[in-house]
Design goal:
Elements (H helix, E strand, L loop, with lengths): L1 H13 L10 E8 L4 E6 L3 E7 L5 E8 L4 E7 L3 E8 L13 E7 L3 E15 L2 E16 L2 E16 L2 E8 L5 E8 L3 E5 L4 E5 L7 E5 L3 E5 L7 E8 L4 E3 L6 E8 L12 E11 L5 E6 L3 E5 L1
């Protein structure tokens, strides 16, 4: 404590024209046993890091500013926990404070995590279980993790690195999905609206995959692994782009609803779409790559 006082005094003496005193930080550690599920109420006041527990217990490390205007809650039931925070001075005309709480959650294997709220600031590393996120915006990163990933955002950048499992991932706006060196262990889907989807595989998948974009690029990169399956590509004719290193066996044009709506008169319009198909090695798994006015790209 004496050292802290010394630093503050030095700041006052050196810069008398501007002195900012930061609130003190508090640290809390808690351990919970026999838990199967954890629910997180997301808000801009909190950042979450999720990692593996060293034992079968849940360990929570919380660092927060010593601020009486905010409050956190850990609600415990028989087999579950719920984490939330609250701005006690909330007013619709006043911005919500950001980054008040820094949560680190050490979770055992097979844990179910459910996150819901307006802004997700989430970093997941070495997690083994299932995680569901429903949010409007934010940034999410998943590394060296495995299990079931069910992620839905109105507009949030989402990144996977060396993860394995089943993936049901969607985001809107101009946000991107970047999945690098992943292993797909169940039927999976990646979709975005104006952003890009890039999926780089660590091994040849045995399960169905769908990659969908609106105006961005959808890339499926086998990264040198064996390419096998039936592939269907679709794009708005003369607007979208389809790219594959293999010859197409079938091609047709069909009518469907106009997806790129510019004004009220566009609702209900039908336009031409191009469908291209190819079978490489085997008819399974089924891979669907579709775009409206972006590109659908297969890479060896």
């Amino acid at each position: 404590m004496k050292a802290n006082k010394t630093r503050i005094m030095t700041l006052v003496l050196v810069s008398t024209s501007s002195c900012v005193l930061f609130p003190r930080q508090k640290e809390i550690q808690k351990t919970y046993t026999n838990k199967d599920e954890i629910a997180i109420d997301l808000s801009p006041m909190s950042r979450y890091t999720i990692t593996a527990s060293r034992d079968p217990n849940v360990h929570i490390h919380l660092r927060n500013a010593d601020d009486p205007t905010v409050q956190y809650t850990i609600h415990e039931t028989d087999r579950a926990l719920r984490l939330s925070d609250k701005d006690l001075n909330y007013h619709p005309n006043r911005p919500t404070p950001h980054d008040i709480y820094q949560w680190k959650l050490e979770l055992p294997k097979k844990m179910k995590v459910k996150c819901n709220g307006g802004i997700a600031q989430l970093n997941v590393d070495s997690f083994d279980g299932s995680i569901t996120v429903t949010t409007a915006a934010g940034t999410m990163t998943f590394k060296h993790s495995k299990g079931a990933f069910d992620i839905s955002a109105a507009s949030a950048n989402i990144r996977f690195d060396q993860c394995e499992g089943t993936f049901n991932v969607s985001t809107g706006g101009w946000a991107d999905i970047d999945a690098s060196r992943i292993v797909i262990e169940g039927e999976s889907r990646f979709s975005t609206n104006g952003g890009d989807v890039e999926v780089v595989l660590a091994k040849t998948p045995r399960h169905n995959i769908t990659i969908a974009t609106g105006t961005g690029r959808g890339l499926l990169d086998y990264n040198g692994n064996t390419v096998v399956g039936s592939f269907k590509f679709s794009a708005e004719k003369d607007k979208g782009k389809i790219v594959s290193p293999y010859p197409f066996e079938r091609q047709e044009t069909y009518k469907d609803d106009l997806k790129h709506i510019r004004n009220q008169n566009d609702f209900g319009k039908k336009v031409d779409y191009l469908l291209k198909e190819q079978v490489i090695g085997n008819s399974l798994p089924e891979v669907v790559m579709k775009t409206v006015r972006g590109s659908a790209v297969l890479r060896k």
